[in-house]
Amino acid sequence: MIQVAMATSPFLFILLCLFISFSISNAIVPSADTFRYVNEGDFGEFESEYAPTYRPLNPFTFPFQLCFYNTTPNAYYLGLRMGTRRDGSLMRWVWEANRGSPVRENATFSLGSDGNLILAESTGQIVWQTNTANKGVVGFAIESDGNIVLKDSSGNFVWQSFDSPTDTLLVGQSLRINGGPLKLVSRDSITNNVNGAYSFVIEPKRLALYYKNSMRYWSSTFPELNRANVTLVNATLRIAETDYEENNFHTLWCRLENARDFEQPYLSLGTIRYNSSLSYLRLGIDGNLRLYTYRANVRGNAWALLFTLFDRGVRTSTGADDPVDECQLPSRCGKFGLCEESQCIGCPTPNGVFAWSKDCDVKLPSCNASSFKYYELKGVDHFTVKYTSGTKSSLDSCKNKCTKDCKCMGYFYHTDGSKCWTVNELKTLTRTGNSTNLAYIKTPANGTTISGAKGYGTKCDVKEILMP
Ligand SMILES: *[C@@H]1O[C@H](CO)[C@@H](O)[C@H](O)[C@H]1NC(C)=O
Ligand SMILES: *[C@@H]1O[C@H](CO)[C@@H](O)[C@H](O)[C@H]1NC(C)=O
Ligand SMILES: *[C@@H]1O[C@H](CO)[C@@H](O)[C@H](O)[C@H]1NC(C)=O
Ligand SMILES: *[C@@H]1O[C@H](CO)[C@@H](O)[C@H](O)[C@H]1NC(C)=O
Ligand SMILES: *[C@@H]1O[C@H](CO)[C@@H](O)[C@H](O)[C@H]1NC(C)=O
Ligand SMILES: *[C@@H]1O[C@H](CO)[C@@H](O)[C@H](O)[C@H]1NC(C)=O
Ligand SMILES: *[C@@H]1O[C@H](CO)[C@@H](O)[C@H](O)[C@H]1NC(C)=O
């Protein structure tokens, strides 16, 4: 019909287009479905994650509810809380609009008839918005899976909170390679709600964890992706009935899908004996990845921790989803320390390895090559070594690379394979006990010896290497 119209009368066609765009842009949110909440009044009295004060808002779907919450006075975030029952179970924050940009008392959260969802200060200054004005939005909802959505008249999502995760994935939520959210970013600390140092990222061939965006401390290995020469499209948190178990067993997966019709790799995140899609995967403040599940009919203690990527008492790991020893966490030993079997066992210094405490730190040498030297640790690896390939080089050129780079804090070398890693932050070193793994730490050349400190064991050989 359009073709006919075009052929017979271009004018009619233009009119038709105008009519279509007019009717779309003119879709409005019925006034009964618009809202405007003001951040004021009494606080809720139940316990929630990060121990904030909070004000619940009306929109909710069991067990999800929107709230304003603050961990520091007069700095509020609009968050989605999971856990609405007043039974003593902790309520947890699974999505938020304005991390890093808090609003004050009397801020407003509103949906106008134009379909734009806005978080604004009481002065009217917009802090966060969905940018969906005149895009056909007719309504707002919190879906049963925790997805906050703006729908058009056909029920399609014009905007969804699942597309803007912070540190949490709910069941059904995805990281996507093409145009979707690529990563989760950790929260800085309990009280400081800004982006932290860790990220969980989907890449064409793997999932990976990074410290400060560049230092990889974990990645999944899916050899089947290379064998079949396919790349990933998305990673989606899913729950599925297990086919080999009796009734009522369900498996939680982080399923990695690719564009081809090919077996999809996954991370197995645990099995539950009930059917509940009320679970979430969280990149924690400490850079660890955990899966929590909410048992809707358990009173008082509704949450179960089902999966922890970096865990205690882990000896070896071979599979993509096998837990890894906690020593692999960059900040396991704070600013600096030597770690073995999840324990911080020593504080390396140019004068030997001493007992570890959280004061263990490195002395920053000046940039001038004649002002620093290196000391050697044997049988030690950096947290980036295990999941990155290093560069093939001689020990000397590895050292030169670090010496020339002001930001380099030390270098790591595997004599077996001649592999070199230079690092800008030391953080947690893992004791491997393998004498082919060497570490060289920069230290001021004029550094004074620590008097009175007693050497700690003989687990590492420490030897001074003076600059030529
Ligand atoms: C919030 O608004 C109310 C009513 O307009 C006003 O009484 C109150 O002082 C305001 N609070 C702050 C902290 O501005
Ligand atoms: C793998 O796939 C890419 C892109 O589809 C193609 O360019 C490349 O030739 C393939 N490699 C092999 C070994 O089949
Ligand atoms: C993930 O990718 C698969 C394969 O392309 C697709 O069928 C599926 O709809 C995607 N899921 C999401 C949530 O994007
Ligand atoms: C499990 O729950 C989901 C969503 O609530 C539902 O779609 C599915 O049919 C349930 N499966 C079983 C075996 O009850
Ligand atoms: C580096 O230190 C040496 C010896 O202390 C000094 O002679 C030289 O000028 C310094 N170079 C720079 C760039 O500061
Ligand atoms: C030390 O590491 C190398 C490879 O990096 C390995 O071949 C060797 O078996 C290891 N030795 C011990 C004692 O674990
Ligand atoms: C050691 O050198 C640094 C910079 O090269 C200097 O700031 C510091 O004062 C020196 N310390 C001593 C004890 O000489």
UniProtKB/TrEMBL annotation:
First and last residue of the signal peptide: 1-27
Residue span(s) of domain Bulb-type lectin: 45-163
Boundaries of every Apple domain copy: 367-445
Domain of life: Eukaryota
CDD domains: B_lectin, PAN_AP_plant
SUPFAM superfamilies reported for this sequence: alpha-D-mannose-specific plant lectins (SSF51110)
A Pfam family that the UniProt record links to this protein: B_lectin
Keyword entries, A-Z: Glycoprotein, Signal
InterPro entries named among the record's database cross-references: Bulb-type_lectin_dom (IPR001480), Bulb-type_lectin_dom_sf (IPR036426), Pan_app (IPR003609), SLSG/EP1 (IPR035446)
Name the record gives this protein: Epidermis-specific secreted glycoprotein EP1-like protein
